[in-house]
Specification:
291 residues, alpha/beta, Rossmann fold, GMP Synthetase, Chain A, domain 3, 2 domains, six-stranded mixed beta sheet, three-stranded mixed beta sheet, binds guanosine-5'-triphosphate, binds magnesium ion, GTP-binding, KH_dom-like_a/b, GTP binding, rRNA-binding, ribosomal small subunit binding
Length: 291
């Protein structure tokens, strides 16, 4: 029986969370085209007849973490690296130029003394490629796979290699405990997961800087007698003018955000959902929730 932990690491937006979701076969981590969509490591359990794997999706490493939030997110990724892992998947996006940020990730990957796999993601995109800039990595990392996480292309041989590199062992305590859950996420509860789904909609629907001024909090989940799941949640933002943008003219934006989130929560839970969603100004949420 093969069993172990696999760390996914790479720059922001290379497709780490998309990859983990597709391997697991359901959404465990939110995704968006914006950098550092993932804010903390997410552990998810994969099982098949070959064994069990805990995949650890990490936030993309920012080259220059300018603000408090980005610094703390980078620190969380570095902490995850220090966890006992068995295999490292280093993911790159060949459609992006290699830059100082990539150099930072390469530096971190070099220091991890575990079997490594280089995964070139987004091979469904052919028009623009900087693949030659990454070729030197093949000399350092013996296993290279080209995939499309989004389109589920060439994922099988990669999973086979991961199993090959994992040790033969019986499941650890953490794994045994995870196997008793009916949901594959190991380290976050349902309130946090629903908050993540709400945060994803902010990342997908709001302009460039706004997602970075926000977080989402779920205060209450209650199942009512009529079978409807009642959820009370808040989007926190740092300033009043962002709050106004999140609410939109005549409340149109928050309505749209709420309805999009509600539909997905309903899909994820298989229940009818009533979502009570508000926007609040809290200039200190980053310190409160991310230190
Ligand atoms: N064309 C294409 N797009 C992809 C592929 N994989 C991911 N994407 C897109 O790339 C963007 C970023 O994907 P994520 O999975 O959120 O990336 P990430 O590495 O987890 O990003 P962070 O959490 O911010 O570090 C999203 O818009 C995805 O839809 C792929 O194989 N092909
Ligand atoms: Mg991510």
């Amino acid at each position: 029986m093969k069993s172990g932990k696999v760390l996914i690491i790479g720059r922001p937006s290379v497709g780490k969370s998309t990859f983990v979701n597709n391997i697991i076969g359901q959404k465990v981590a939110i995704t968006s085209p914006k950098a550092q969509t993932t804010r903390f490591p997410i552990k998810a359990l994969y099982q098949d007849e070959r064994g069990e794997i805990i995949f650890i999706d990490t936030p993309g490493i920012f080259g220059q973490a300018k603000d408090f939030l980005a610094k703390h997110i980078n620190e969380r990724t570095l902490q995850a690296i220090h966890e006992e892992v068995d295999v490292v998947v280093y993911m790159i996006d060949h459609t992006k130029r290699r830059n100082f940020e990539e150099a930072k990730v390469i530096g971190i990957v070099r220091k991890i003394n575990k079997p490594k796999i280089l995964v070139v993601n987004k091979v469904d995109v052919k028009e623009e490629t900087y693949l030659p800039q990454y070729k030197f990595l093949e000399e350092e990392i013996p296993h290279v796979f080209e995939i499309s996480a989004l389109q589920n292309m060439h994922m099988k041989p990669l999973l086979t290699k991961i199993f090959e590199l994992l040790p033969e062992r019986t499941a650890s305590e953490e794994m045994a405990e995870a196997k008793t859950h009916d949901y594959p996420i190991l380290n976050i509860d349902s309130k946090t997961f629903i908050a993540e789904l709400i945060r994803e909609k902010v990342f997908l629907m709001m302009g460039e800087e706004i997602p970075y001024t926000t977080t989402a909090i779920v205060d209450e989940i209650k199942e009512r007698k009529n079978g409807i799941m009642f959820i009370k949640a808040r989007i926190l933002t740092t300033e009043l003018h962002y709050k106004k943008m999140l609410i939109g003219e005549g409340g149109r934006k928050i309505k749209e955000l709420g309805s999009y989130a509600r539909k997905e929560i309903a899909l994820a839970t298989g229940k009818k959902v009533y979502l009570d969603l508000k926007v609040e100004v809290d200039p200190h949420w980053q310190e409160v929730y991310y230190s």
